[in-house]
Amino acid sequence: MSRHKTGDRFDDDDYPAYTMGRAADMIGSTPAFLRALGDAKLIEPLRSEGGHRRYSRYQLRIASRARELVDEGTPIEAACKIIILEDQLEEALRINEELRSADSSEET
């Protein structure tokens, strides 16, 4: 579940530390909004042993970005697509930079 030992779980961006209610409070939304993001497949919360949704800090950053877009008038489905495209662009730019760095080091 976590890449880190037990004591470091709360430092792990991927550790599902927050309940739905707490997560909604943290991003200034409602539990229904978080459920809608899950329905749209933008974020998929992990489940506790009791079946309750649990969110990580990484997922809350994504949910917060979605809330910003929706607050600006973007439909939730479009907001989810925008966030996915932003994430893909960020990853492509990171890979491009790594490749450029590798090419530069081979030339020297």
From TrEMBL:
SMART domains: HTH_MERR (SM00422). One of its GO terms (molecular function) is DNA binding. One of its GO terms (biological process) is regulation of DNA-templated transcription. The keyword Disulfide bond does not apply. Keywords: DNA-binding. Residues 17-85 form the HTH merR-type domain. InterPro entries: DNA-bd_dom_put_sf (IPR009061), MerR-type_HTH_dom (IPR000551). This is DNA-binding transcriptional MerR regulator. It comes from Nocardiopsis aegyptia.
